[in-house]
Amino acid sequence: MGKIDGKVVLITGGARGMGAAHARAFAEEGAKVAITDILVEEGEKLSAELGKQVKFYKHDVSISAEWEAIVADIEATFGPINVLVNNAGISIMKPILEMSEEEYRRVIDINQLSVFLGMKTVLPSMLKTKDGSIINISSLAGFRGTSHGSVAYSASKFAIRGMTKAVALEMASEGIRVNTIHPGLILTPMTVQAGAEEVVNLLSKDIPMQRGAQPEEVTKLVLFLASSDSSFSTGSEFVLDGGQLAKL
Fold it and tell me: How many CB atoms lie within 10 A of CB 66?
């Protein structure tokens, strides 16, 4: 049996990109996987591809009632949740003078509020077994601002760091670990849509390793944090950035 075998895993933003890579890996390792997303067609296709141990839910991660309904159904279908991967996120990159309040709030709702709602809703399920790992996907932008109009995005990703540390301390004695992952440039549909190939190539020049990472490279760290291999890690920050922070 694998280290993830039989665990119940919830992955938000799981229909494509990093989330889909995580879902595939967890399914291959024998976990029972709930993937949630607003991308219904892609999510249902992935769920069908991965088999009966995977279930897709249409999910707006900024709505508390949807979290409650989905967690209840996961428990009824698979049992108490062991792993939560708060992966859903959006990016609206505009300078502050051009960004509307509505756009700013949308980024905060999807990137930051969703992490709060996810932890708050899933923790009672994890406490039933006192066996839990929460993995919050932040960003390199959670450590630094950029010159690319990241006021909302950076605010949300910095906040995830603080939220994670606070909840990690609350849950440390309950058998539940809470950590953050901070990817740099990951070659996902969101990244590619945010800039053409020449922009990605330009960004890569700022990376000591001279490339972006594939989603599967993040997945390996997600699996580590979900497993007992990381049993003494909580409230910690794990960076995958090809060496960018080393230059600061």
Answer: 17
Run of H or E residues at 12: strand 8-12
57 in catalytic set: no
Alpha helices in the chain (DSSP H): 17-28, 40-50, 64-77, 101-108, 114-127, 151-171, 189-194, 197-204, 215-226
The residues with which 134 forms a beta bridge, in sequence order, are 84, 178
Q: What is the pTM of this model?
A: 0.94
**Secondary structure (3-state) at 237:** strand
pLDDT tens-place string over residues 41-85: 999 999 999 999 999 999 999 999 999 999 999 999 999 999 999
Q: How far is CA 168 from CA 127, 174, 201, 222, in A?
A: 14, 10, 37, 17
Q: Say how far apart CA 159 and CA 20 lie, in whole Å.
A: 24
d(CA 162, CA 68) in angstroms, rounded, equals 24
Of the residues 26, 153, 224, 238, only one is catalytic, namely 153
Residue 121: CA count within 13 A, CB half-sphere = 25
Both tokens assigned to 122 = 């899933």
Which positions ≥6 away from 206 have C-beta within 8 Å?
244
